[in-house]
Amino acid sequence: MTSSSPARQWSVPAGLLLLSAVPVLAGAARVGELTGGAGVTADNARFLASPVPVLVHIVGASVFCLLGAFQFAPAFRRRRPGWHRRAGRLLVLSGLAAALSGLWMTLSFPRPPADDVLLTPIRLFFGAAMAGCIVLGVAAIRRRDVDGHRAWMARGYAIGLGAGTQVLTHLPWVLLAGQPSGTPRVLLMLAGWVVNLAVTEWALRHRPARAVPSPRRATRAVVADPVR
Questions:
Q1: Interior angle at CA 164, CA 113 and CA 156, nearest 5
Q2: From CA 98, how far away is CA 60, in angstroms rounded?
Q3: Residues 210/157, Cβ–Cβ less than 8 Å
């Protein structure tokens, strides 16, 4: 990507922003419902009964997905290393908030009728995996492992963006047969996370190799910009 045109370099962030749009807008609608005195229904009763983790999850996930998209523009990162570091700190906090609040809701909220019991351990696995990837990404950059940092943060972002891809995996089923439930919903939800992680792993293995600088130049580069 470093040698491609500016338009092509921004195509990945633009695609990620589009993928984030539906869950972010749905989250904004839910926030309006929780803060606007909406009436209690079967769909929102569990959220109205305990709104704090819902609000934390929506805000954290929205910031993580929208702000994280710009970290996939390499030229922008190089031109604004200070912004990259500041945004990275916010991404860590928002990503952990989204993951941990998601775990909280999975464990404490009643299971919706459309959700098969298998969705509970799947949600717990991916929520824990997202938090783990972010923690490993932070640990990698603290020991100056830039490639490891990028890889783990990309995996965490892929899991966090699962809600966007799940809109696409659900869409054909909804158009043909209505809202899925039971086993079909489990498989469609799982597909969103698996597709994102598969694409991320493919991209990580096919990215251009970075030139290895001399020890003296590498030391100067790390001091000047520890997260390049």
A1: 105
A2: 5
A3: no
Query: Tens digits of per-residue pLDDT, 99-129?
Result: 999 999 999 999 988 899 999 999 999 999 9
Indicate the pTM of the whole model.
0.85
Q: Which residues, other chains included, contact 146 with Cβ-Cβ below 8 Å and sequence gap of 6+?
A: 140, 227, 228
Secondary structure tally for the chain: helices H, strands E: 11, 0
Please report where in the chains the tokens 């290895």 appear, as a residue. Answer: 212
142's tokens? 């603290």
Cα 72 to Cα 1: distance, rounded to the nearest angstrom: 10
Q: Cα–Cα distance between 99 and 17 in angstroms, integer?
A: 19
Q: Return d(Cα 211, Cα 188) in angstroms, integer.
A: 40
